[in-house]
Amino acid sequence: MARSSVRPDTAEAEQATAEAGVTDHVAAGDGRGQATGGRETAAGDRDAAGDAPSEAGGDDDGDGGRGDDGDGGDGGGPRAGSGPDRRRRRRRVLRWSATLLAVVILGGAGAGYLYYEHLNANIKSDDLNLGDAKDRAAEPTANAAGQKPLNILLIGSDARNTAENQKLGGAKDTFDGPPLADVQMLLHVSADRSNMSVISMPRDTLLDIPKCTDPDDGREYAALNNEMTNVSLGRGGPGCTVATWEKLTDIHIDHFMMIDFSGVVSMADAIGGVPVCVDASVYSHTRDGKGSGLRLPEGTHSVKGRQALQWLRTRYGFEDDTDLARAKAQHMYMNSMVRQLRSEAKLTNPNALRKLAEAATEAITVDDGLDTITRMYDLATELQKVPTERITMTTMPNRYSGARVVPTEDAAKLFRLVREDIALDGKDVRKPPAAATASPSPTVTDTAAPDGDIAVQVHNSTRGDGRAAARGRAATVTQLLTGKGFTGAVADTSTATSEKQTVIRYPSADLQGDAERVAKALGIPTSQVKRSTDVTGVTLFVGADWRSGSAYTPSKAEEKPKEDDNTPTSAEAMNAADTSQCMHVDPAYSW
Question: Is the whole-model pTM more than 0.70?
């Protein structure tokens, strides 16, 4: 694994370090505090290092995975806030301590530069994607405001590559063996940064793994069919796990972050504890030595360090004792951590802030696009823009195939929603009603602007089935729209496209009504109105089914109900702002 060694000039280092210190207002939420919360959310996602061998090296479920291990211990309850006066005092304390931290870190140009270099040197980096370039998912098109969605793969590695990781993970016979990506979560941030969606993939998922090439020694790993997803990490590094996700989902991944056992512990300690809840006492332990060792009485407890790792790795003891229940517990931990970092004034002194910076930079491995403090800070700034109540955790819908699971049709739908940048909480902001006009538009699914205010690009996409494109179709249909009052319609002949069926695409929820209004005016079924990040505005593709004439006649065979954009119930969506979350304990593991 390569380690970054970026050496910015002194002025740049001072500026970046000052930003990292002065804006770290965790409770006030006005800068790095929430940014840190965003980055730690990613770290928390990665915290779940998955199953691991027990002390005896046993397998937790006899399926070739690695068993759980750890010790228990009760945590204290979470702190409670009280009143506006305390919040104002807390903000003042944080601003003071953040400013003091900047002074301590900078101390002068030389000291600031050295500390910046020190943090940069902590960061480990690796290649983003180890698959073939031809197999990679296309990058989404920016929306009308020039914004693009952001996709980050969070990986929990079960590597036993150090004495500390072996002690935390158990299984003395697997020291320094190939690591497994036992936790994989795709974090999607919408183009407008209004919402965030997380999809967990169970480590038992069977799928196709593409050919990957190790960037260090050039070794090629042949493609695998119907293999467990977690083996991808041992095939050249995290970039192979990224390639596997892109092959399955066709979602372009911008970055990855990976954490191991010891990283989970150090990050949890630096955060200062995360509240978790169980609806009964739980002890994750079996007679044959399996289980995480988590031991908690009924109620809410603040877990950190090794106990946080136990929570994230617990399989035996939660719900049906499966990897799916563990994913749910991981989601609860992440949600609680987001709320904790955004609402609690835990870090009120420079030493604590520096400890968090040290832990964060030492704990994770990132792709080369995140290998400096400034790049990580920029990413955290983007993440902190998303309100807590717009963060949705889901698990990839699946069904059993023997002892493993495989993706279902609902999983394909979930991936489509992410590709099309549709919020999984169902709360995409729609356009407010337009002002009344002399000739109101016909009713459509969503409100639309007046016809003359709707900008429409028209493409001639009639080429196909061995036939050349019908000449002049973009101009003809543009004139048709103009005659119907859509004076903002323009023919776009810059790009040659091909569509079997006429389709209208729009990039974001606020343009859905406009797109459906255009469809209504031309007699195009709403099932042929699609949301897509491949366009920047309402775009009409005149397909091979409309090569001539001024009236569109849909084929009855192609008239289908429009796909709904609701998150499948099988994804078990969980909102980060829900404070009532509590893990159900399997009575067999209660004490």
Answer: no
